[in-house]
Amino acid sequence: MKIRPFRLSLLGLSLFVPAALCAVVLFLIIYSGQAIVFNGLGFLSRITWNLGNLYSDPVTINGIQIPLGANYGILVFIIGTLASSLIAILIAVPLSVGAAIFLAEAVPELERSRPRWMPPIRPALSMLVELVAVVPSVVFGLWGVAVLVPFIGKYLAPSGNGYGLLAASIVLALMITPIIATTLLDSLMQIGKENRESAFALGATHFEVVSKVMLPMVRTTLIGGIVLALGRALGETMAVLMVSGGAINILPTSIFSPVSTIASFIVSQLDSAESDPTNMAVRSLAEIALVLFVITLAVNATAKLLTSGALSVRNRK
Amino acid sequence: MSVTVNNQPRFQALALRRAIISHIGWIACGLGLLLVIGPLLDIVGVVAFNGISAFSLKLFTTTTNGTAGGLLNAIEGTLVISAGGMLIAVPIGVGAGIYLAEYGSNKLGNTIRFLSDVLTGTPSIVLGYFSYIVFVTTLGWDFSVLAAAITIAILIVPYLARITELALRQVPNTMREAGFALGASEPAVVFKIVLPGAISGVVTGALLALAISVGETAPLIYTAGWSNYLWNGKLTNAPIGYLTYVIWTFIDQPDARSHALAFAAAFLVMLVVLAINIGVRLIIRRTKLT
C-alpha cells in the first residue's frame, strides 16, 4: 500500500477526537477505581453522602484510606436528576409539539393573507425557536433566579420558597423545547403532499389532517427528538444548580422540594471534596461523573437509533 | 330516505364538534409556540434591561473587587480562554472535518464520526471534572488558563469537525476531479480548491464554536478557578476570571451591586452568543436564496 503523508497527517488530527473521548473515560475510570471498589454497588442505592470526619486520622478499610465515618451514596442525586428531567419532558413535549405544528401548518396559512410589504413570518419564528437553544445555560439560570423562582415562591409554593424541583424542571423544559420542536418541524415538512391531500380529500379538517395523519407518520422521529432532549436535560448543570435549591441526604417529597441533580452536585461539592486529605471524596465525585456519562451515553445512543430511522415503521418493507 | 333525514341533525352536530375541536387544537398549538418563544423574549428583555442599566465606564476599566467593582478581569479572562480553546480546537477540528469529508467514507471514518457524536453528547461537567483530575491535580497545573482552554477545546472540537465535514461535502465532486485532471496533488486540491469553496461553512462552524465557548460555565468552574486580578500571562498555576462565573455566583450575593454585575456580565455573554447565532443564520439564508 502506498503511504500518503497528507492523508496520514489529517488522519492523525482527526484521531484526536476519539482519543479525547477515550482519555476522558479512561482517566475517570482509573481515578475513581478505589472509590468504585470501596463504594460497591450500594453507591447507587444509598441516600447519605457523608464526607466523614476530615480532621481525625483516616481509617483504612480493605487497604483503602478513607476519612472516619465517610459514606458515599448518590441515590438522592439520581432521583433528583430523573425527576427533574422527566417533569421537564412532560412540560416540554406538549409545548414543542404545539409549536412545531403551528409553525409547519398554521403559519403558512396565515402567510397567505400577508400583505406584500411584510417579510415572511415563518423563518423569523423558527429562528426564534432555534435561538432558545443557544442561550447559555447560566443565563437561563439567571432568569430562573430573577424571575421564575420569585414567581413560584409567591404564587405556587406553600412554603413561599421558589427554589426546588419545579423551578428546575421548568427551566430545563424551556431549554429542551427547541430540540424537540425543530426535530419535529423538520420531519413534518418532509411529509409528502400525497398523504396530506388524500386526507383532505376524505373530508378531514386541517387540524384532523395534522393530528390524525401527519403526527402518526412522524411518531418515531418525535420520540427520537424527545429522547435526545432527555439526554440534554440529564447532563444540564448550571441552570439546574442555580434554581434547584441543592438538597443533600434527603429525597424530594413534593415538586417544591429542593433537589440536587448529579451534574449540579458535582459542581457544588468542589470545595468540600478538596478538603478531604484521603482524596476519597474527589474519587467518589469522579465515580459520579462516570455514572452520569454512562446514563447520557445510553440515552443518546437510543435517540440516535430512533432518529436515524432504523426503527421507523415506514422503512419496514 | 327517512333515515338520511333523521341523521341530518346528527351530522350537523358532528361537523360542529369537529370544527370546534379543530379550532381549540389550533389555539392550543399557537399557545404552545407562544410559550416557547415568550420566555426567550422575556429572558432577553430582563437581561438586557438590567444589564444595560448596570453599564458604566467603570465596568470596562476596573477589575472586580470582592463582589463589586468592574468586569475587566472577567472580560479579559473570557477572551483569553476562548481564544486559547479556539487556537487548539480549530486546527484539530478542521483537520478532522477534512479527513472525514474527503477520505472518511469507510469504517474508520464512521467510527470517528460515532465517537465524535458521543463526545458531543457528553455533559460538559463530565469534561470539566476530567480536566480537574488530570490537569489541575495530577499534572499539578492548578486552576489555570491552559487547563481551561484544553477543556473548552475538547468541548468544541466535535462541533467543528462535524460542521467542517458538512461544508466540505457541499463542494461538488467535479471541482475535485477538475483539480486532479490538471495534475494537482491531494494537498493542493484540498487547500486550494475544496477548502476555499467551503470557507463560509468552515467560518460559520468556527463562529458557532466561539459562541459555545463564550457561554460555557460548568467545565470552567473546575479548571479556570477565579481571580480578581488581570491575567498575569502565565499558562499554568494561575487562576483566571471569566464572565459566566460572575453570573452564577454574584446573583446569589445579597447586595444589589453584585446583582447588577451579574446582569451586566449576562448581557455581554448573551450579546456575543445571540449576535453570532443571528448573524450566521441570516448569512446562511441569504446564500441559500441566491
Folded structure, characterized:
- The complex is a heterodimer of chains A (317) and B (290).
- Chain A is mainly alpha-helical and 317 residues long.
- Chain A has a domain at 80-251: MetI-like fold, CATH 1.10.3720.10.
- Chain A is 68% helix and 3% strand.
- In chain A, strand 2 and strand 3 (64-66) form a beta hairpin.
- By secondary structure, chain B is mostly helical.
- Chain B is built from 12 helices and 2 strands, in the order ααββαααααααααα.
- Chain B has helices at residues 2-53, 57-61, 72-103, 107-121, 124-138, 145-169, 173-181, 186-197, 199-215, 218-221, 243-250, 256-289, and strands spanning 64-65, 68-69.
- In chain B, helix 9 runs antiparallel to helix 12.
- The interface between A and B is large, with 83 and 88 residues.
What would a concise description of this structure say?
By secondary structure, chain A is mostly helical. Chain A has helices at 5-39, 75-112, 121-134, 137-156, 165-189, 193-201, 206-217, 219-235, 238-243, 262-268, 270-274, 280-307; strands at residues 49-50, 59-61, 64-66, 71-72.
